[in-house]
Design brief:
Blueprint (H helix, E strand, L loop, with lengths): L2 E5 L2 E4 L4 E8 L6 E8 L6 E7 L5 E3 L7 E6 L4 E6 L8 E9 L16 E2 L3 E6 L1
Parallel strand pairs: 2-11
Antiparallel strand pairs: 1-3, 3-8, 4-5, 4-9, 5-6, 7-8, 9-10, 9-11
């Protein structure tokens, strides 16, 4: 059974930092993409960042470029999202998700329907 467990969310002031972690287990895929989505109240879920083992590509949505960094530790079976210079508009529930297969992150946008497995999410709240 594939499991994704996010952690590291919390309340932070604008300009602060958080590091999200996603521990994954239950799969031994050679090719996959793993990424972070977020969903703010009343808004659609949107892709934030992903990285692909298929082609080593990385994606960031425009609004987080230069502030967020995605990384992975295969030995620990974890993926991280370092979030710096946080803004109130970054407030959302952040989800970790896995796309099984030859998924590239050299994309214009991340599509939720392409991802097969999801975590439960972790709340990030950025105060003014």
């Amino acid at each position: 059974e594939v499991q994704l467990v996010e952690s590291g969310g919390g309340l932070v002031q604008a300009g602060g930092s958080l590091r999200l972690s996603c521990a994954f287990s239950g799969f031994t895929f050679d090719d996959y993409a793993i990424g972070w989505f977020r969903q703010a109240p009343g808004k659609e879920r949107e892709g934030v960042s992903c990285l692909s083992t298929s082609d080593d590509s990385i994606y960031y949505r425009e609004s987080v470029k230069g502030r967020f960094t995605i990384s992975s530790d295969n030995a620990k079976k974890a993926v991280y999202l370092q979030m710096n210079s946080l803004k109130p508009e970054d407030t959302a529930v952040y989800f970790c998700a896995v796309l099984h297969g030859l998924g590239s992150c050299a994309v214009r946008t991340m599509r939720t329907y392409e991802y097969d497995y999801w975590g439960q999410g972790t709340q990030v709240t950025v105060s003014i």
